[in-house]
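Worked example 3. Consider a protein that binds magnesium ion.
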Amino acid sequence: MRIPTGIEGFDDLVQGGLLSERVYVLSGPPGSGKTTFGVQFLAHGASRGEVGLYTTLLECPQNIINDMSNYAMNITSLIKMQKLLFADLGPRMEYGYMDEMSEFVTTDYNVGRTSIESEAPSPSMVFKEIAAYVSEYDVKRLVIDSVSAIRFTTNDFSLQEKEMSRFIRNLKKLGCTTVLLSEMTDPTAYSTEQFAAHGVIFMHNFLYDKTMTRAIQVIKMRGTRHDCNMRSVSFSERGLRVEGYLE
Ligand SMILES: Nc1ncnc2c1ncn2[C@@H]1O[C@H](COP(=O)(O)OP(=O)(O)OP(=O)(O)O)[C@@H](O)[C@H]1O
Ligand SMILES: [Mg+2]
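Given these inputs, the predicted complex is written out as structure tokens:
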């Protein structure tokens, strides 16, 4: 079954929408529109009665809610109706308390150790928290912001790849249509999550002829005949809008 994304002009590129219950990666540089895409996708589902969950690892949810309230996505009432949920899975410890205490507390016996609460969570911790939300609220659409902020329990790159593949394999079994946001500065360096996902979409934001140009491009979409070219993107009062081919 295909589900409409709610991103104006996008579904025409992918035979009418995303295949449901699959995992997609949306990669792009800072400010390219990843969060906007994610929230718009969830708000559209929520307005059709499908519960959406936006999980943050880097940014506090309130900031995202404030920023996205600029758009006519109706997010405040969708949140009140519990059709749109925001969950903060980032490091818990706030600056402040321990900073003030630091001159009174000896850290000698603490060298090389940090509180688990202050670290970014591992893939399995993130997965467990998400799975609990999904079953409690019957979540249908899921966004993870961002996969790049997940901490690995090892420095070994091949083990990190295995952990990431395992994370994505588990997400595929959750029964949600999932969009993983990932930061990307080099569009030619593909990552494990991009290989493991059912689909990969790039958001571009680059300098061309002295102006910043925004575009979207479907890199892969299993089981779908799709447009591979860069389409220009703009922001309307309702969020992102996909337009014609980039000239
Ligand atoms: N009405 C608007 N409200 C907020 N942002 C807007 C608006 N119109 C255009 N923008 C653009 O949207 C950009 C932010 O988009 P978004 O937060 O979705 O990007 P992102 O890829 O998630 O960024 P990051 O990597 O920092 O998380 C802003 O930098 C701004 O250029
Ligand atoms: Mg963002």
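Take a moment to read the result before moving on. The CA atoms of residues 25 and 200 lie 5 Å apart. The pocket of adenosine-5'-triphosphate (ligand 1) is lined by residues 28, 30-36, 67, 70, 235 (CB under 6 Å).
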